[in-house]
Give the backbone structure.
Amino acid sequence: MSRLLKFVFLVFAVAALAACSSTPDDDGAPVDDRTITTGSGATGGTDTSGATGTDISGAGVDDGRRGALNDPANILSRRGVFFAFDSYVVEDQYRPLVEAHARYLVGHPAARMVLQGHADERGTHEYNIALGQRRADAVKRMMMLLGAKESQIETVSFGKEKPRNPGHDETAWAENRRTDIVYVGE
Amino acid sequence: MKPRGFLQSLRRISGIAGIAIISALLLMPLSARAQLTIEIIGGAGAALPISIVPFAGEADFPLGISGVVGGDLTRSGRFRQVDSVGIVPRPSTAEEVNVSIFRARGADAVVVGSMRPMPDGLVEVRFALVDAVKQQTLSNMVYAVTQQQFRATAHRIADEIYEKLTGEPGIFSTRIAYITQQGTQHQLQVADADGDNPQTIVTSKDPLISPRFSPDGSRIAYVSFENRKPVVYVQSLLDGKRQAVANFRGSNSAPAWSPDGTQLAVTLSRDGGSQLFLVSATGGGEPRRLMSSPGIDTESAFMPDGQSLLFASDRGGTPQIYRLWVADGRVERVTMEGAYNVSPRPLPDGSGMVFVRRDSGRMQIATMDFQTRQVLALTPGPMDESPAIAPNGRYVLYAARSGGRNVLAAVSIDGTIRQRIGALAQQVREPSWGPLL
């Protein structure tokens, strides 16, 4: 049987991980505790803790205006665009929110954002990545129509991997079909 | 017939004929690290009756070979054990097998063997397989192994028996990979096909999905969200080194190895939408776009000959499975019925595929034969996904939800035998099955 299992398992710190960015966590807290462990087996791997790394706060956001993004009274503090089942259309109720963020990008050419698309759990892991991507792309398209630059917006998808509500009913699913707006450097 | 003996005593035969519940954990009392339990929840009536005689001398060692062999063969669903208790003297070589005694007990095949310490510290393991019907020896082998190799040797013997009696390769020496989750901790683990000997390959606070063994089993591709977006990595199982092979702007996911192990088909959103690209398995270079479509193209899988890929796409309105020929870009729709058919996995002989279909909200594992286009549902659902086909094409490992938990399950390719493989204290999902070694 496999030579692999008899192997003296060497473990390597993966220095490349140190390069991973410190974009904000879902709750807005800085990500400074990310720990990735990789290995080949027997030892269970080694902590590389690579991601404790680089603080790029402020890299894309005008510090003077960051208050507006987090001021609860400001529409810019609202970051979720929710979608109907099997839908990728930004509903009218979210237009003011999307427009406000688009205006912010237009007014702050150095600002960068990541739109994180999500799907509910009714689908396969990988197909739902594609569905979440479509929801992020829909918000991006609307922002670009409103003048934001393509280079300011990266769209990514978490599929069904990061549900906002871990439940298995329609209420949970409705909360999970969404695009989260996250500014780089927050 | 009342089974007894080491293995059999742990087996509970219910009143319903053919349904046995086996805890693989109990079969491995010496393996503290075992984490998966395997129970057979449906049995095949046509299982071949085989008598596995405890090996001479194995009581002197911490792990008996015959128990592991018996566990492997029973879990395959294609064998039923016939009691050998009370046969005196107990045979340990083919010559010592009195075929008529075993025939009288209903056995069609007999396994005998011995374990003996050698002067150099190794252990000599002998085994023989006797066809009790034709009265001939089908296999006769000798191994010199360390104690650490007992389990591996037992799996090799089970593979040999399986192949001799079914004509197909056994998969007991193969490995599986899967993702576990405990709280916020996600792990990619690799284990023996029976769930024993689990090894942690990656630990992350962020989700991991889509592990895929390379064709030679030496590397594993997977998708990690540790960088706040999906990125495809390839990691060596030999030295643990890993490399991001798809880390472009946007999402990078759905890795699928080319049969020669040099490339991966992946789904990238870097040029908009979700589209299929080829990237180098060693990283670097520009990805090569496989085709352009206005819809979603993802979940690709190479056919065994490498000339075409199956993939899921909603280009026709609903998610369906298509086939792309790499040479000329020709695309053919494969699934015609239903509103959601995704996750295609070609059978090793290319004659068909296993996939996931959703019908009235119920997700099931199904097969399709490419010639007849006939679809067969293998599992009941309601949340079955991530099928991984055994390298001999006989079994499908998949992710299911049971009692609110994510568990692994296995089903035979004809749907007749189903096993639930439960984890003790954690969520398990996203299985992958390694190659024959």
About this structure: The domain at 175-433 of chain B is CATH 2.120.10.30 (Neuraminidase). Chain B has four helices and 32 strands. The first helix of chain B runs from residue 5 to 8. The longest strand of chain B covers residues 136-145.
